[in-house]
Amino acid sequence: MKKIFVMSVVMLTMSITTAFGATSGFTNISSIAVYKSADYSSKIKNTLKINSRVEIVKEKNDWYNIKTQDGTTGWIEKYFVTVPAEKYVVNNTSYKINIRTSPSTASKQVGQVSPGEKLKYVDTYHSWHIVEYKGKEYYIASWLTDIEYKESEKIYLLYDNVNIRGAAVASGNVITTANRYDSFDICGEKNGWLKVRLGDGGYGYVAGWLTTYNLNYFAEGSEGYKKTTDDLNIRTEPSAKSKKITSVKKGTTLMVVDSQDGWDKVVDMSGTVGWCNNSYLMETLPLEGRKILLDPGHGGKDPGSISFSGKYEKYVNMDVAQNLKAVLESMGATVYLTREGDTYIANKQRGRMADSLGADILLSIHHNSLNNSDYFGLSTYYNTVKYKDTRFGYDLAEAIYLNAVTVTGIYRDGILDRNYEVLRETNTPAALIEVGFMSNPAEEMNIHNSSFQNVVVQKIAAGITDYFNAMKN
Prior knowledge:
- The protein is an alpha+beta fold.
- Helices cover about 15% and strands about 35% of the residues.
- Strands 8, 11, 12, 13, 14, 15, 18, 19, 20 and 21 form a 10-stranded antiparallel sheet that branches. A 6-stranded mixed sheet has the order 30-29-31-34-32-33, sandwiched between helices. A 5-stranded antiparallel sheet has the order 6-5-4-1-7, with no helix packed on it.
- The longest helix is centred in the C-terminal third of the chain and has 23 residues, at about 450-470.
- Mean pLDDT is about 95; it is low at about 5-20.
């Protein structure tokens, strides 16, 4: 979807309150409880969405004592928090670079980074890096700076036969390959690719979306769903003698995150964690009975954006839609496409098609473009012109976004309210995703990479599942 970049139209800001210098982590599972003490039988103080940022105050055995963005303190099992590697934004140019209050060159300048100087990296948003500076968090242009990692930090591979390349692009020459759980010292990051140190002392690049900073259950993507076959107790340990936390009714869907000696460690939709006897659980498809309409944007006489290398957006939209359709169907959903081939359909017709099918949701799939090749990142969109209720757009856009940006090498570009016709002309809950920027030459290569697409569609599907699960609560 082609956009014209106008600096003065909107000022994007993000408020961050984590204490300067503190270690931060991000929740890696949807709807996880924060407990009063390091004990699953203690009181639940809060429930966090996936990718919620937390400040780690201290550790106790397998638990973190954390502080949330709204100031709540409590305990969460380490298992459910991913702690990114420590990294820095470095000025490797010969000139000073401005530090600003928001991700825009029109925003107030608060300082500068001199050549060779580095600042602690916090996050990336709207193509700007967030850094710590004089006790607060500010923004610095990503296209003028480099990312370097603290010495001794590691990453782990999530798949077998992963290519290690000679450059930070999908077209780079393959130097070697590595397998699941292999680890590498990490040195830098560029365009979603991680610079790693090889055994011979040389360096290579690995796609960030194929890696994780922490080897835990969720990094490995192994969660599943089961349904209770009877009323069932959830306990603190995998034993009938352990303390009962709560009970769930027959037919309740639970996320299974571990198994041990005939017991499953589960998380219910409110974030409660505990153990159930798996004799009373049966496998279930999380999207069974759901009807979903996917809209591969553009088509026919409308090519959509034309990428940096001259590729048409309409084709990659269809690739992602077809891949996502297969994943959603494997999870039990009935899935339709607004177009099956390279045909033109008016946006109004696409939106109304969801109504005529009786779809539960509509997701329009696009890839972004600007008249500025420096910009990158994933964004989702909703519309409030017709509906103010968040269930009709925002909740779906947020669930997909929060899952997608958990992937290393996928950067945040925001959840935005836009008056797009395909979202406005429907009575069905609807959202639109821009997977990345085709106008950015490096991100364009990522977008057309099959492993990138596979990871993205898995995360979109997880977000859709989270949306429906939240509707049940």
